Automatic annotation (TrEMBL), chain A:
This is Aspartyl/glutamyl-tRNA(Asn/Gln) amidotransferase subunit C. Belongs to the GatC family. It comes from Shimia sagamensis. Pfam families: GatC. InterPro entries: Asp/Glu-ADT_sf_sub_c, GatC.
Automatic annotation (TrEMBL), chain B:
Heterotrimer of A, B and C subunits. It holds the Pfam family Amidase. Its EC number is 6.3.5.7. Keywords: ATP-binding, Ligase, Nucleotide-binding, Protein biosynthesis. This is Glutamyl-tRNA(Gln) amidotransferase subunit A. The gene is gatA. Residues 25-475 form the Amidase domain. Belongs to the amidase family. GatA subfamily. The active site is at K78, S158, S182. The keyword Nucleotide-binding applies. InterPro entries: Amidase, Amidase_CS, Amidase_dom, AS_sf, GatA. The keyword Transport does not apply.
Length: 95, 495
């Protein structure tokens, strides 16, 4: 399975990372190196083997479904690049 | 007058309790050592005022008696841990300026026990790397050098700053995190001890997430006793991490008897890699002899799926990273790109992430995106999770045969030069974790102990892998190995 430039561009788009056109060939080559390495997994017989969900078999702890915190709008917004009137501000999303 | 920076945690604790020294004196000594060691680039955010404030409080507690073991002991915290009001960037430009409004559970537990944070430590960006060369702060430098050669060496990664700081006596101990070997490999490269506990022992809450099913925090210390002391302070159930286990935390230090008579130590044949340097082979053989001489029974074992651990890791870890790092979008914290006229929210995401993430992080996020994408999920991600099941079963089988611990090399080489791997393809760098990554995939505890030096005088470490939740027994085996190896070498001070 070889990755070409258009696949590399598609993956960059899905990952929401801007990659300039002229950087795509090198990126595709790097993907191919990593995927070539991963291909070894095809040698393993995994017939009937369950995919691992949790490395430690444990029943997740339960707790009462109650509010445990809140009321900290200032703290939540304190690190925002752009916060206005108690909200996170972003470029216009809906026309 | 003793050089206070050379003390172990245990020695410093005893001196504090005996009234031979105060936490303020200790802290001031380390703050000076840190300021003199900027050449190592280990501490990237220094917190001297906070440290002295905590040291004063610790002295009061110690004077009142009944202070916990860690009380008054100056330590460093890896930049991956969120620390309230103190920059916590995971060594990434995308978290530039981020000052958490909260404290990670582990750093909170250490603070509650009276430990004194001296500052934040360098690391690979988002803990992705094996040489500390992907950090936005620049490389951390290994205090060790090859003989008289002054070429700068890597302290390993991703916990490179932690390793460098402990080895150079800039703090008594440090926190690290380990997703594929990020505590054990740098510990081996710098001649110190590092333990990754069983997955679930330490809370991940407030630790910047890389690959959530693999990440575990642990201590990096000068010796095994210190690892036991600090690990105990870090472990314990946390409601805020649903994967943190609700098990009693034993007194690990009290379990260090050094008596390993009758213990079964497994030597896995699959770890004897082609092209393994003779020095590593000898180190491993010597370590085996030491454990045998201490009364352990040596058993040849097989972990047949070892070869597939790294490829499985390089599917699972990037997949989880691509999901975890989706949160860095320029909206809630950290960097946001300057937008051009007409740019919408998609351009904001794309430009922000292109500017904020370094090259290795971008590559892993994109590889993760690819293996999780429609049409490839089964072929890559599900297959890797099946192989992971088989890797864990390999370990379960040998433990069922009565094996108590497994001895392997910690790394395939000694520390290499910074920049030496720049032109190599990424796989070459990934091979650094070949002996450590299986342990993360199986969720087991693993410890790296320095046991020798190579022909150029660089430290080398061995790894012991234990049964799940039996860190106490593992630490005791490591203690016996440490006693037998008698590793005392220290780097010459050049910085």
């Amino acid at each position: 399975m070889s990755i070409d430039e258009s696949t590399a561009a598609k993956v960059a788009k899905l990952a929401r990372i801007k990659v300039e056109e002229d950087a795509l060939p090198a990126l595709a080559q790097e993907f191919n190196a990593v995927l070539g390495f991963i291909e070894q997994l095809n040698e393993v017989d995994v017939e009937g083997v369950e995919p691992m969900v949790s490395v430690t078999p444990m029943r997740l702890k339960r707790r009462k479904d109650v509010v445990t915190d809140g009321d900290q709008q200032d703290k939540i917004l304190s690190n925002a690049p752009d916060a206005r009137e108690g909200f996170f501000a972003v470029p216009k999303v809906v026309e | 007058m003793t050089d206070l920076t050379k003390l172990t945690l245990a020695e410093a604790r005893d001196k504090l309790r005996a009234g031979d020294v105060t936490s303020v004196e200790l802290t001031e000594t380390f703050l000076k050592a840190i300021d003199d060691a900027d050449a190592l680039n280990a501490f990237v955010h220094k917190t001297p005022e906070l440290a002295l404030e905590r040291a004063k409080a610790a002295d009061v507690r110690i004077a009142q008696g009944d202070a916990p073991d860690m009380c008054g002991l100056p330590i460093g915290i890896k930049d991956l841990f969120c620390t309230k009001g103190v920059p916590s960037q995971a060594a990434s430009a995308i978290l530039e300026g981020f000052k958490p409004e909260y404290e990670s559970t582990i750093s909170q537990k250490l603070e509650d026990s009276g430990a004194v944070m001296l500052g934040k430590l360098n690391m690979d960006e988002f803990a992705m790397g094996s040489s500390n060369e992907t950090s936005v702060y620049g490389n951390a430098i290994n205090p060790w050098r090859r003989g008289n050669d002054d070429a700068a060496l890597t302290p390993g990664g991703s916990s490179g700053g932690s390793a460098s700081a402990v080895a150079a006596d800039l703090c008594l101990a440090a926190t690290g995190t380990d997703t594929g070997g990020s505590i054990r490999q740098p510990a081996a490269f710098t001649g110190i001890t590092g333990i990754k506990p069983t997955y679930g022992r330490c809370s991940r809450w407030g630790v910047v997430a890389f690959a959530s099913s693999l990440d575990q925090a642990g201590p990096m210390t000068k010796d095994v006793r210190d690892a036991a002391i600090m690990l105990e302070a870090m472990c314990g159930h946390d409601e805020k991490d649903s994967t943190s286990v609700d098990l009693a935390v034993p007194n690990f230090e009290a379990m260090l008897t050094g008596d390993i008579r009758g213990k079964k130590i497994g030597i896995p044949k699959e770890y004897r890699m082609d092209g393994m340097p003779a020095e590593i082979e000898k180190l491993w053989a010597d370590g085996t002899e030491m454990l045998k001489a201490a009364g352990a029974e040596i058993v040849d074992i097989s972990l047949p799926h070892t070869k597939y651990a790294l490829p499985a890791y390089y599917v699972i870890a990037p997949a989880e990273a691509s999901s975890n790092l989706a949160r860095y979008d320029g909206v809630r914290y950290g960097h946001r790109a300057t937008l051009a006229a007409g740019d919408g929210i998609t351009e904001m995401y794309e430009k922000t992430r292109a500017e904020g993430f370094g090259h290795e992080v971008q590559r892993r996020v994109m590889v993760g995106t690819y293996v999780l994408s429609a049409g490839f999920y089964d072929a890559y991600y599900n297959r890797a999770r099946r192989v992971r099941t088989l890797i864990k079963q390999d370990f379960e089988n040998v433990f069922a045969q009565g094996i108590d611990a497994i001895l392997t090399p910690a790394t395939p080489s000694a520390a290499f030069g910074l920049g030496e791997m720049t032109d190599a393809d990424p796989i070459q760098m990934y091979l650094n974790d070949v002996f450590t990554v299986t342990v993360n995939l199986a969720g087991l505890p693993g410890i790296s102990v320095p046991t020798g030096v190579d022909s150029q005088g660089l430290p080398l470490g061995l790894q012991l892998i234990g049964r799940p939740w039996e860190e106490g027994d593992l630490l005791n085996t490591a203690y016996a190995l440490e006693q037998a190896a008698g590793f005392v070498a220290k780097p010459g001070k050049w910085w």
